[in-house]
Write a structure and sequence with these properties.
The longest helix has 32 residues, at 29-60. This protein has eleven helices and no strands. By secondary structure, the chain is mainly α.
Length: 267
């Protein structure tokens, strides 16, 4: 008797729900569009509330806002948005972060072509959100841009690596249900973003997300330090996936579904 091969991640999910339904949903243009639209809404919303929030603090806050207070307020704004967005979009797709998408793909939860599409849409969405805020308020508050301390670019890369490692490890460890909006996942993401954003914000912005850094930088016309928020989060995501594999083993079918979203039932 032949022993069936052991498969993980995306392949395990296809085996679990049946190849015909898998192909009819995750491989279909309609489902791909749903996922990408969900990513656009969530990511654009994130940079809009951050960029608009920073500008409003400067223009209408009524006081001179100290860096730590601004970091706390903006971290709270972004955390609350992420909690809400993951709750209402999580069953479709709620990465909102190229580093998170890269981690899911590296773990085998989704394919590389879809990963590339996700990243492109996330970057476009991030730019759209910050440009929309700029249309209201100009570039006040630097549109919540993440800016490293002078002469500390390498230190900022390592700091971003550490922060992103923690976030990615937390998410891929908790994303073990039929969708990425289990009862506690959105709250955990919000808590992490608020706490680490407040901690790292005054130092180097604490982006933990290449798209979140890209939108404000592009809208204010300065991409000179954006590479910091690509290299650091990507490195953090790679380390997190390796550690998660040691802690929890390869991705299971339900974890791939958490990364890929719940398919629509075909009528």
């Amino acid at each position: 008797m032949s022993v069936p091969p052991v498969v993980f991640g995306e392949a395990a999910l296809a085996l679990q729900i049946g190849q015909p339904r898998f192909n009819a949903n995750w491989k279909s243009p309609r489902h791909r569009f749903r996922r990408l639209l969900s990513e656009f809404i969530g990511t654009a919303g994130l940079t809009f509330v951050l960029s608009a929030g920073a500008a409003i603090l400067v223009l209408y806050g009524g006081i001179q806002v100290e860096p730590i207070i601004a970091a706390f307020i903006l971290s709270a704004i972004s955390a609350l948005w992420l909690v809400v967005a993951i709750y209402f979009l999580g069953d479709i797709s709620s990465h909102f972060n190229p580093a998170m998408t890269f981690a899911f793909t590296l773990r085998g939860d989704m394919g590389w072509p879809m990963c590339a599409a996700y990243v492109v849409v996330q970057l476009i969405a991030a730019a759209a959100g910050s440009f929309l805020a700029r249309s209201f308020f100009g570039i006040e508050g630097n549109l919540a841009a993440t800016i490293p301390q002078p002469e500390q670019l390498i230190q900022a890369v390592f700091f971003e690596t550490i922060l992103t490692f923690g976030m990615v490890l937390m998410v891929i460890s908790m994303a073990n249900g039929p969708k990425l909006n289990g009862q506690f996942v959105p709250v955990a993401v919000g808590a992490y973003v608020m706490s680490l954003g407040t901690l790292g914000g005054p130092y180097e912005g604490a982006a933990m997300n290449p798209a979140r850094a890209f939108g404000p930088d592009l809208a204010r016309g300065d991409l000179s330090t954006w590479w910091v928020y690509v290299v650091g989060p990507v490195a953090g995501a790679i380390i997190a996936v390796l550690v998660a594999k040691v802690l929890r083993g390869p991705a299971k079918a339900q974890e791939a579904q958490a990364a890929m979203g719940t398919p629509q039932d075909e009528s």
